[in-house]
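In response to the reviewer comment on reproducibility (Comment 2.3), we provide here a single inverse folding case reported in full, input and output, so that an independent group could reproduce the run without further information from us. The structure tokens appear first.
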């Protein structure tokens, strides 16, 4: 789809993404254990929104509508109704139309698209935020909560770690079909940690990852699935993190920019987007992300851009193999060649197509509802030179985001240009 009028990202904010292995994450070995608690879901929603207003200089009164992406607040935090929760961020939001948007791990991308829809139907300044808290339970229990993004009756029993197992299945099929190796795929993980080590907001900012560790299972990097057939195809280092965090951004039309007194040169612009959905539990080819491919082709066809035009991308690397499949679905690599693209270093900060420059879901972290919003914000931050130690040497002109829900069942891709 192409916007019917010009649509801009004015800016936004994100909280640090934290969880196990982050220095600020409170757990029983932490020196502050018992003295302070980790931030709550409310903190992430409210703080990211307040900071987005502060960073952009937008007054809450100027916001026409708000959308909050969140997947499983009821399960992890006993909290739903996050549209109304977001209104607690500022008393001037009181009475404005705010709502929650859910599409599994694509909830954040859908919150941004809901904002785009609102701008098409008369609003001029819209807030799109996302947040998730997942560290309130052990990873195994959380895996059961996340399994609600699969078809519960048909897919839950593949493994107690349902999603890790679903992507182990993709890794198995991918390796068998194209001869990709564990080591090639491990380059995705190593790059993710390298980038996150340069990013103060990243969950794994202080954890290093060597190729020898990521490429091979071992005592410290176990194949942890119970499903015997899939177990050899997923190591702990292949996985995205169980993170808490929030992100918020502000979208505006040209009239909105005028109202805010913001110059378009301080913004990035939406070129085109694609939103595709596949039936739950009905993946017919595990060696490709067919739904993401459909969404991406809409970005390219409708926006008049090609994969070669893309200077920076944020893609949904929920597992290392997913990023390889993303390269192919987005046209950065030919079918079966995604792992090679990673192994060649082409997607590193100094490569031909830098991907997930702040560490991706694997090392920046994956607070599910925040992820799709954070992706857009990362493109904005790269385009505006705000990425500090992981800033790309050349300012990108064209960017792409690809956010995915479930096993490639909901896909939201967006093309962006710098102004
Ligand atoms: N040897 C053998 N087994 C070991 C082991 C060792 N040295 N260390 C751990 N294990 C096994 C254990 O069985 C353990 O489980 P239990 O303790 O419950 O028995 C299991 O591995 C996990 O270990 P931990 O709980 O200690 O692991 P952790 O807390 O460090 O978490 C992780 C690691 C399980 C990989 C976790 O980070 C994770 O689940 N990541 C994936 C998160 C995820 O799936 N997100 C959603 C992605 S899908 C998506 O994005 C789309 C969508 O819509 C959902």
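Designed residues, in position order:
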């Amino acid at each position: 789809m192409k916007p019917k009028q010009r649509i801009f990202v004015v800016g936004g904010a994100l909280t640090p993404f934290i969880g196990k292995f982050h220095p600020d994450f409170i757990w029983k070995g932490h020196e502050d254990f018992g003295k302070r608690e980790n931030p709550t879901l409310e903190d992430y929603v409210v703080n990211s929104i307040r900071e987005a207003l502060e960073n952009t200089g937008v007054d809450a009164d100027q916001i026409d509508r708000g959308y909050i992406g969140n997947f499983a607040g009821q399960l992890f935090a006993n909290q739903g109704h996050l549209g109304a929760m977001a209104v607690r961020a500022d008393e001037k939001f009181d009475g404005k139309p705010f709502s929650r948007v859910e599409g599994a791990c694509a909830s954040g991308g859908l919150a941004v698209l809901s904002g785009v829809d609102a701008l098409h139907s008369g609003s001029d300044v819209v807030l799109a935020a996302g947040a998730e808290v997942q560290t309130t339970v052990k990873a195994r229990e959380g895996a059961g909560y996340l399994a609600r993004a699969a078809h519960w009756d048909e897919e839950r029993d593949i493994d107690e770690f349902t999603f890790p197992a679903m992507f182990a299945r993709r890794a198995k099929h991918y390796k068998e079909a194209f001869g990709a190796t564990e080591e090639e795929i491990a380059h995705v993980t190593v790059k993710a940690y390298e980038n996150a080590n340069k990013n103060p907001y990243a969950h794994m900012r202080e954890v290093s990852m060597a190729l020898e560790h990521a490429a091979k299972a071992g005592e410290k990097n176990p194949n942890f699935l119970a499903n015997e057939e899939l177990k050899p195809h997923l190591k702990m280092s292949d996985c995205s993190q169980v993170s808490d965090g929030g992100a918020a951004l502000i979208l505006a039309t040209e009239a909105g920019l005028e109202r805010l007194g913001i110059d378009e040169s301080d913004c990035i612009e939406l070129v085109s987007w694609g939103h595709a959905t596949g039936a739950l539990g009905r993946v017919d080819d595990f060696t490709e992300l067919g739904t993401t491919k459909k969404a991406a082709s809409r970005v390219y066809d409708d926006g008049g851009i090609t994969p070669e035009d893309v200077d920076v991308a944020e893609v949904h690397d929920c597992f290392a193999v997913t990023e390889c499949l993303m390269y192919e679905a987005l046209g950065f690599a030919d079918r079966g060649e995604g792992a090679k693209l990673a192994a060649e270093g082409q997607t590193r900060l100094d490569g031909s197509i830098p991907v997930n420059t702040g560490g991706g879901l694997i090392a920046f972290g994956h607070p599910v509802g925040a992820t799709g919003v954070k992706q857009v914000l990362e493109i904005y931050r790269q385009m505006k030179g705000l990425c500090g130690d992981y800033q790309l040497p050349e300012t990108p002109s064209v960017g792409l985001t690809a956010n995915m829900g479930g096993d490639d069942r909901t896909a939201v891709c967006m093309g962006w240009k710098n102004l």
